[in-house]
From TrEMBL:
Domain ABC transporter: 9-241
Annotated compartments: Cell membrane
Residues in coiled coil: none
Membrane topology recorded in Swiss-Prot or TrEMBL: Peripheral membrane protein
Protein name per its UniProtKB record: ABC-2 type transport system ATP-binding protein
SUPFAM superfamilies reported in the protein's UniProt record: P-loop containing nucleoside triphosphate hydrolases (SSF52540)
Keyword entries, A-Z: Antibiotic resistance, ATP-binding, Nucleotide-binding, Transport
Upper classification of the organism: Bacteria, Bacillati, Actinomycetota, Actinomycetes, Micromonosporales
Gene Ontology cellular-component terms listed: plasma membrane
Length: 381
């Protein structure tokens, strides 16, 4: 990678207002991307991510502010800026009149890569992206996943300093998604600066160094994924699937759980698909790493003992890990300010007191997607 002082990308008070629009698509956005950094630009539909990438890659002109790529101002010197960057756009813009190999060679020629070097690189990239066998066939035969792989290979042909990827895994099958994430990781390891938009933020969480969350054209926050997750209301999550007693009110059960010591927030969540049926019932404790750690602290058989204690002398109402019918079942997420192990007993006691059945319990940690929902809300755009 060419070494240069200063940020790989610098965006200062960037504004874009499309003709006849009543609001700005990008509304005073500022952020920088350090050399070698992988930066995730996340936001709901219509937040202004593609517009920002369009300006940075010289496809669109900004209405105001400044944007530099590789130290070059994209409005003053778009040709100079293009020498530093490559883009994988959201929509297929391959040249259908050319074969896949020709697409790569044409792109290299545009960027002044000498022909023998370009041919060598194209051969290597077609292999790395699993496209070698179809490299000289008509491009119409390419699936969406193949086209996406080819567009990423094309972006790599002139070994850019900064790579922009606009939703690189959108609408792809799991195999192609895995391949693409691993190729992006390789580029990162080679020192390329990467700006990435995606809705698959939990997939991207392990790849990005920092995340900027945008909505309505404005930056809501920018930080490392770890700090963003740590900054959430609670540090751990307890997901409960509960069947309240027939005479009880579901919202009152949630309100009571919210009052437990160590609970910062309690919210109703949609039941996972299939959970309403018999298949989801009575699976008991589904534990992630944090959950296993919490239970390890309690010692073996802890849940059984807790359940026995909660059952009391047999006349008391019971709360059990049960496979009760799906009717009336609710899912509640507790954001905790304490070790999940401290909440297991009180939760079970509370449910026992209300004659509620505990159908499932899962201890986890908040994800980047939880941070995103917290900041941008639940309403679809
Ligand atoms: N060519 C255009 N003309 C007018 N308005 C546009 C145009 N392109 C985008 N917009 C509007 O600008 C806003 C930002 O759109 P943009 O595509 O940048 O969002 P996005 O965050 O990339 O969304 P998505 O996740 O759906 O791709 C939206 O309100 C969109 O409707």
């Amino acid at each position: 990678m060419p070494s240069r002082d200063g940020p790989a990308v610098e965006v200062v008070d960037l504004v874009k207002c499309y003709p006849r629009a009543t609001t700005n698509a990008v509304d005073g956005l500022s952020f920088t991307v350090a050399p070698g950094e992988t930066f995730g630009l996340f936001g709901p539909n219509g937040a202004g991510k593609s517009t920002t990438i369009g300006i940075l890659t010289t496809r669109l002109r900004a209405t105001g502010g400044r944007a530099l790529v590789g130290g070059v101002d994209v409005s003053r010197d778009p040709v100079g800026a293009r020498a530093h960057l490559a883009v994988v756009p959201q929509h297929n813009n391959l040249d259908r009149a050319l074969t896949p190999r020709q697409n790569l060679l044409y792109h290299a020629a545009y960027h002044g890569v000498p022909r023998p070097e370009a041919e060598e690189r194209a051969k290597e990239l077609l292999e790395r992206f699993g496209l070698a066998e179809r490299a000289d066939r008509r491009i119409e035969a390419y699936s969406g996943g193949m086209a996406q792989r080819l567009m990423i290979a094309r972006a790599w042909m002139h070994e850019p300093e900064v790579l922009f990827l606009d939703e690189p895994t959108n609408a792809l099958d799991p195999q192609t998604r895995l391949l693409i994430w691993s190729r992006i990781r390789e580029m990162r390891e080679r020192g390329v600066s990467i700006v990435l938009t995606t809705h698959a933020m939990n997939d991207a969480a392990n790849l990005v160094d920092r995340v900027g969350i945008v909505d309505h054209g404005k930056l809501l926050t920018v930080d490392t994924p770890q700090n963003l997750v740590r900054g959430l209301a609670g540090q751990a999550i307890l997901d409960l699937t509960v069947t309240p007693a027939a005479r009880d009110d579901a919202d009152e059960v949630v309100a009571a759980l919210r009052e437990l010591d160590g609970v910062r927030k309690a919210e109703r969540r949609p039941l996972p698909v299939g959970a309403a049926g018999a298949a989801g019932a009575g699976r008991g404790a589904g534990l992630g790493p944090a959950g296993r750690a919490a239970l390890a602290k309690l010692g073996p058989g802890a849940l059984a003992k807790l359940a026995a204690r909660a059952r009391g002398n047999g006349n008391a109402p019971t709360a059990t890990l049960s496979a009760a019918g799906a009717q009336g079942r609710i899912r509640v997420r507790l954001h905790l300010a304490t070790d999940p192990a401290n909440l297991l007993g009180p939760t079970l006691s509370l449910l026992t007191g209300r004659s509620a059945a505990l159908n499932d319990i899962h201890i986890g940690e908040p994800s980047l997607e939880d941070v995103f929902i917290e900041l941008t809300g639940r309403d679809p755009r």
